[in-house]
Amino acid sequence: MVAAADAQNYAQKLGIIHGMVVQELGWDEDTNDDLRADIEEVIGSELLDEDSDEVMDVVLLWWRDDDGDLVDALMEVTGLLSDEGFVWVLTPKTGNPGHVDPSEIAESAPPAGFTQTSAINLGDWAGSRLVQPKAPSKQR
Questions:
Q1: CA atoms of 121 and 93, how far apart (whole Å)
Q2: Cα–Cα nearest to 67, from 76, 57, 78
Q3: Nearest CA to 101 among 110, 91, 109?
Q4: What does R_g of the chain's alpha carbons equal in angstroms?
Q5: Cα 31 from Cα 12, distance rounded (Å)
Q6: How far apart are CA 80 and CA 57, in angstroms?
Q7: What's the pTM value of the predicted model, to 2 decimals?
Q8: What are 30-89's pLDDT values in tens digits?
Q9: How many C-beta neighbours within 10 Å does residue 127 have?
Q10: What ranges make up the beta strands (E) of the chain?
Q11: Are 92 and 102 in contact (CB under 8 A)?
């Protein structure tokens, strides 16, 4: 059980602030509804689903062991992100059904054009933050 104080900090932990456009992919009955509600409260709107064609600031990708190829899923997300956008891959923690080994995320990020920057605890879920590497500045 997640403490109420933890639920209030989900959006903050994820770096999500008011006005951001957030898409949610991979929703199922096992997702954390407290996390979802906290994010919606902070951004001031509903989470967008896979049918949205808006440019996203954040993509929440709920991912389980049997969901398929993570590289393919991440590559589909790339075109939806703003230049400063990022992805949170949310996976069940160790010992829970659908657990994904952290090495799978670390290995899947680079071929899809992402770099993993951090990992956090979100109750029964773990989050891995992925960003698109900045293009090197051209020096003259």
A1: 8
A2: 76
A3: 91
A4: 15
A5: 18
A6: 9
A7: 0.89
A8: 999 999 999 999 999 999 999 998 999 999 999 999 999 999 999 999 888 999 999 999
A9: 20
A10: 22-25, 56-62, 81-92, 115-122, 125-131
A11: no
